[in-house]
Write a structure and sequence with these properties.
- The chain is α/β, with parallel strands linked by helices.
- The protein has one domain: Carbamate kinase (3-Layer(aba) Sandwich).
- The chain has nine helices and eleven strands.
- The strands form two sheets. A nine-stranded mixed sheet has the order 4-3-5-2-1-6-10-11-9, sandwiched between helices. A two-stranded antiparallel sheet has the order 7-8.
- Helix 2 crosses helix 4 and helix 6 runs parallel beside helix 8 (198-206).
- The longest helix has 25 residues, at 69-93.
- It is globular, with a radius of gyration of 17 Å.
- The model has no long low-confidence stretch (mean pLDDT 93).
């Protein structure tokens, strides 16, 4: 098999981790993720992961319900740590070593993040799970994943979603929505497409970090992306 990426940053949504139950953590979905991650690690791919926390708590939605924005975002950061611990346990249970790094000191829950520590773990074949977002309020986990992808010198940021790419309108609301196989960052800006927040998108554009959007909820899709199958949307300059 010809590998198209040697080191990836995989961005997963907390909502996807909830699976069909719609909240919390689905054991079935967690198991599916673990199997797919272990499979591509076995092919020699170095895998770093950032996962959101929306299945537990989302800072922005908390702010609309009266939470202080900073405290709400801090609660959201802790939600990503919970998800990261779950995502660490599942691959470990099937023989894939993992390492949880946190953007805020909270040993012994996870090690404090540093680029050197993360890259050393990746080169040892461990899955590195970067939790806590950027460690600062007012930034999303999309921005956190863009930051880590650039910092860890990943070949690509894979954004696993519940749709199979980027469309010109919401495919869940518009059956006639058109899917893009390739799109530029400028087109995303001009069309006002909600791929990621503006800060995250700008970081990737300015640093030449390609993004590949695909449906992670279909079992086996992660390997298909790694092997070069065109099942999603590529975003480049």
């Amino acid at each position: 098999m010809v590998l198209h990426f040697n080191r990836i940053l995989l961005k997963l949504s907390g909502e996807s981790l909830a699976g069909a139950q719609g909240h919390g953590i689905s054991v079935e979905r967690l198991s599916q993720y673990a199997e797919q991650i272990k499979e591509i690690c076995g092919l020699g791919v170095q895998v770093a992961i950032v996962i959101g926390g929306g299945n537990i708590f989302r800072g922005m939605s908390g702010a609309t319900r009266g939470f202080d924005r900073v405290k709400g975002d801090q609660m959201g950061m802790l939600a990503t740590v919970i998800n990261s611990l779950a995502l660490s346990s599942a691959p470990t249970a099937i023989g894939q070593k993992t390492r949880v790094l946190t953007s805020i000191r909270m040993e012994p829950i996870g090690e404090f993040y540093s680029k050197d520590c993360a890259i050393e773990a990746l080169e040892r074949g461990e899955v590195v799970i970067c939790s806590g977002g950027t460690g600062s309020p007012y930034f999303t986990t999309d921005t956190g994943s863009s930051l880590r992808a650039i910092e860890l010198e990943a070949d690509v940021m894979l954004k696993g979603t519940r749709v199979d790419g980027i469309y010109d309108s919401d495919p869940e609301k518009n059956p006639g929505a058109k899917k893009f196989e390739h799109i530029t960052y400028d087109e995303i800006y001009n069309r006002n497409l909600k791929v990621m927040d503006l800060t995250a998108t700008t970081m990737c554009k300015d640093n030449g970090m390609p993004i590949y959007v695909f449906n992670m909820d279909v079992f086996g899709n992660l390997k298909r992306v790694i092997s070069g199958e065109n099942i999603g949307t590529l975003v480049t300059n």
